[in-house]
Design a protein that fits this description.
Elements (H helix, E strand, L loop, with lengths): L1 H15 L6 E7 L5 E10 L3 E6 L2 E6 L5 H4 L6 H28 L34 H38 L2 E7 L5 E7 L1 H43 L1
Antiparallel strand pairs: 1-2, 2-3, 3-4, 5-6
Length: 242
Amino acid sequence: MKFIAWLLLAATASAAEPIKLPLDVGTLKTRDGKVYEGAKVTGSDAVGLKITHAGGLARVEYARLPKDLAAKFPRDREAAKEQLAREAKDEAAHDRAVDKAIVEKKTPGEKTPAGDADSDSSDTADTAVEAKPVLKGDPEVKIAALNGYISRLEDGIVKANNTVMDANAKASKYASTATTSVTRSNGYGDSTTRDVVNQTRLNRAAFQRKRAEREQQKIVEAQRLIEDAKSQVETLKSQMAE
C-alpha cells in the first residue's frame, strides 16, 4: 500500500515538474502539415510555443501543435484571446505609423510650391504658343516679320519637346515610387508583406502626364502655325515677283 502511494506521489511530482528549456524536439510537424527541422522549444506564451529551427525563429500556436507536445504546456484560452487582441492593436498602430512615414517621405528635390500641390519645384514654365503677328508695311517687311515669327515658334517647339521629356521622366519616377512593399515581423519568424500606396506621388505622376500632353498639343499647334506662316511667306514672295 505504501509502495502504491509512493508511486502516485512520484507521478504527481513528475507531472507538476516544469519543462526544462530549451526542449529539443527534432523534427516538428504541425497539424496543418508544416515541418520545422531541428526544432527546439525556447519558451512559451499564452498563444503558443516559441521555437528555434533550421530556418530561424517561429511561434507555433497551441492548436497547431501535435497533441503530445501541446499537452506538456499549460494553456489559457482567455489569456490567448487577450494577447492576440493586444498584438493586433499593436500591429495596426505600427502599420499606421509606417503608412504615415511612407506618405510623408519625399525624394531629394521633391518640393511642393504653394501654387500647385501636384507640381514640382523644378518644373519649367509651360510653353506659350505665340499668336500670329499683325502684318504691316510692304511685302519685305511682312516677310521679315513672318520669318521672325517662324523662328520663335521653332524655338518654342524645342522648349516644349524638352518639357515633354522632363514631364514624362518625372511621371515615370513618381509612378515607380508610389507603391512600397512593407514587410512586418512579429519577432517569432512570422511575417506579412503588404503594399502601401503613396497617393501624393500617384497624383504627381498624373499631373506630369497631363503636363506632357498639354505641351505635345502646343507642339502640334505651333507646327500648324509655322506651316501657315511659311505658306503666307511664299504668297508674299510670289506677289513681289509679279
